[in-house]
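If you are new to this repository, start here. Below is one unmodified record pulled from the training split, so you can see the exact layout before writing a loader.
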Amino acid sequence: MSQQEKEKQLRRFVTEMRMMEGSVDVLNQRLQLLTSSISELRLAQGSLRDLKGIESGNPLLVPVGGGVFMDAQLGDISKVVVGIGADVSMEMDCEKAVEDIGERLQGMEQAQGAVQQQLGQILAQLESHQGMAERLSMEIQNAFQGAQ
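And here is the target side for that same chain:
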């Protein structure tokens, strides 16, 4: 391969690596969002399960943010309001809500696994490109130094 072809291929590798790094950033952001959503759904599911065992009228401390809590009393939780997307909420039985959250959790975890797999593939490809780019760079440098 000629020196000019090596330089052209090196530029192509660098361009492809930049594109892959952009994809890695996007996938990492998506993974963070999925992880956050999964944590939130697990918390909601656990809270509903815990509250089912408590009688109506019992006192609760409700977090309002910033480490601040206020006193409240548990009402009837046989029906709960669940967000179903696009700023739309729906009232459903507590048991049905727990099931719904479980199904959503399963979907989120599958999506998380798919994103992790894509991320792994791109990182492996990026590592391969880096190795080839380093090898080409060394060849170009050695040829340049040998020409002087």
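Two things worth knowing about this chain: The chain has one domain: 3-147. The longest strand covers residues 59-65.
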